[in-house]
Amino acid sequence: MWKQPIRFFHFGPEAVLFTFSKMAAGMYLEHYLDSIENLPFELQRNFNLMRDLDQRTEDLKGQIDSLAKEYTANARTLSSEQKLSILRQIQQSYSKCKEFGDDKVQLAMQTYEMVDKHIRRLDTDLARFEADLKEKQIESTDYDSTSSKGKKAETRQKEKKTAKTRSKVKSSDEDGSPKSAQKKVKLLQPGEFNSPATNFGNVHPSDVLDMPVDPNEPTYCLCHQVSYGEMIGCDNTDCSIEWFHFACVGLTTKPRGKWYCPRCSQDRKRK
Questions:
Q1: Any binding-site annotation on 204?
Q2: What span, in angstroms and rounded, lies between the C-alpha atoms of 81 and 87?
Q3: What sections of 77-182 are H helices per DSSP?
Q4: Which of 7, 44, 116, 123 is the most exposed place for a label (fewest CB within 10 A)?
Q5: % of residues, the chain, pLDDT over 70
């Protein structure tokens, strides 16, 4: 029975690197998407809480306006105890408004840190992905070097065999051997050892990371770069930069108490 011969395809290091980059990118993307699966719901919850705090604050402001109008309209007829009671109600309402405002600020900071945490994780995953690609590229380069040396040695061996065969054919011609008994030998060139299956083109791992950067993303720090890694905020409310990367201002841990950036520190010393 005739059977179709089994064919073995050789895939070059470029193809392996390209396949690895696709698999690694898919793995990192899948893990990142899993990590942000609940992010929209958490953001929506915080936004709803902030909206509720706004509404409760507006209701209290309405009550304060009513109490203030009542106080001014009846100031002459109200007793001292009644006046004091209205003023206490107004003060309590203002205190409650301040609490709602503080809660809203805390929610806003929590929301920012929540999003920033995922951004930092994305930056970390991208850095790891790039390192993996570089490591794989080095391995493929070593493989190319070893493979080329092996091919050169194999070519030299074949050339020696060909030379011996030619010398035998030549000696046979000198002895008057019939032409039908002569063997024709084709000298194989190094390029003929390459299989068409290895032609995958030039694959550059940097092309995988060549992603567009959002021009609208705000920049921070003295380096004028986007937010990444650990950052610290300047306690000067008039600071034009506000946020700084730890490494750019020489920090490794968050300092205790208030912290001022180098520019604001110089301005404070001058004053």
A1: no
A2: 10
A3: 80-174
A4: 7
A5: 60
SS3 assignment, position 140: helix
pTM: 0.42
Phi, psi of 134 (to 5 degrees): -65, -40
* Sequence ranges of the chain with CATH classification 1.10.287: 9-180
Length in residues, the chain: 271
Instruction: Give CA–CA dist 187/158, Å, rounded.
Output: 8
| CATH of region 9-180, choose from 2.60.40, 1.20.1070, 1.10.287, 2.60.120 | 1.10.287
Q: Is 239 annotated as a binding residue?
A: yes
Is 65 in contact with 159 (CB distance < 8 Å)? no
- Please report the pLDDT score of residue 28 as a whole number: 66
Q: Is 221 annotated as a binding residue?
A: yes
Q: Which residue has the tokens 């194999």?
A: 154
Written as six digits, the tokens of 246 are 């730890």
Which tokens sit at 168?
A: 């035998």
231 closest CA partner among 216, 217, 215, 247: 247
Q: Name the amino acid, one letter, at 124.
A: T
pLDDT tens, residue by residue, 10-66: 444 454 444 545 555 666 667 767 777 888 888 899 999 999 999 999 999 999 999
Nearest C-alpha neighbor of 263 from the set 231, 232, 222, 229: 222
For residue 192, the model assigns a pLDDT of 40
Alpha carbons 174 and 176: distance in angstroms, whole number: 5
Q: Is the pLDDT of residue 232 over 50?
A: yes
What is the third-level CATH fold of 216-271?
Answer: Herpes Virus-1 (3.30.40)
Nearest to 57 by CA among 86, 90, 93, 111: 93
Q: For the chain, where do the domains classified as CATH 3.30.40.10 start and end?
A: 216-271
Per the model's pLDDT, the better-predicted residue between 188 and 16 turns out to be 16
